[in-house]
Specification:
The protein has 197 residues and is an alpha/beta fold. It has helices at 36-44, 49-54, 86-102, 121-132, 149-164, 184-195, and strands spanning 6-12, 25-30, 62-67, 71-75, 106-114, 137-142, 173-175. It is built from 6 helices and 7 strands; from the N terminus they run ββααββαβαβαβα. It has a 7-stranded mixed sheet, sandwiched between helices. The longest helix is centred in the middle third of the chain and has 17 residues, at 86-102. Bound molecules: guanosine-5'-diphosphate. Guanosine-5'-diphosphate binds next to helix 1. Necessary for normal cell division and for the maintenance of normal septation.
Length: 197
């Protein structure tokens, strides 16, 4: 799962305008500040790939990157801003559901979860939505360097228990740290395995 090339392709405000190429696609989403940009940079061995699209004003867009000329990495907007109106929340939800419901080439979403915070309703709701809609997804726990190994184990166990209240099966999950470069191999291997199927 080595990264030979990683390039920014395009940012879009509408799903309909996203690239038409039938290339396997993987989408990263999570609450703002979850560590999404850092994770994308860590996964791709690039210092500021995600920042290209992360500059102000670009954060509400669907950002496509092409990796190894063979799969799209999609950086979706962060959700859960505290200070947004109900109308803009509704609009945002529509925008996101449009993406997940219309994007044919999507192989898997990755929901990022900050390991420092107890399970957040907004993340659980989003996971619920993906599950109910039959959209394949994995969970990426971020900032694992913030906890000791035992505490990571406990956290993940609790999180899984939470999910098993609703679901019979657990999604694939990954423990990562961008600052300590943990989890790159696991995530890339999963991507490799699923896009060769
Ligand atoms: P985004 O808003 O989801 O794109 O998050 P960023 O990648 O910009 O990170 C948000 C904050 O979390 C920044 O202050 C990062 O330095 C910090 N951060 C991101 N990844 C990690 C990590 O793996 N470990 C630690 N300790 N901090 C992280």
């Amino acid at each position: 799962g080595k990264i030979k090339s990683a390039e920014f392709v395009v940012s879009n405000s509408e799903v309909a305008k996203c690239p038409k190429n039938p290339i396997p696609e993987y989408a990263f989403i999570g609450r703002s500040n979850v560590g999404k940009s850092s994770l994308i940079n860590m996964l791709t061995d690039r210092k500021s790939l995600a920042k290209t699209s992360g500059r102000p004003g670009k954060t509400q867009l669907i950002n496509h990157f092409i990796i190894n000329d063979s799969w799209y990495l999609v950086d979706l907007p962060g959700y859960g801003y505290a200070r947004v109106s109900k109308t803009s929340k509704k609009k945002f939800q529509k925008f996101i559901t449009n993406y997940f419901e219309q994007r044919q080439q999507l192989v898997s979403a990755f929901v990022l979860v900050d390991i420092r915070h107890k399970p957040q309703p907004i993340d659980l709701e989003f996971i619920q939505y993906l599950g109910e809609s039959g959209i394949p997804f994995g969970i990426i726990f971020t900032k694992a360097d913030k906890l000791k190994p035992k505490a990571i184990e406990r956290y993940v166990e609790d999180y899984c228990q939470q999910l098993l209240k609703t679901w019979e099966e657990l999604p694939p999950y990954f423990i990562t740290s961008s600052s300590k470069k943990i989890g790159q191999e696991d995530v890339l291997n999963f991507i490799k395995a699923t896009n060769e199927e």
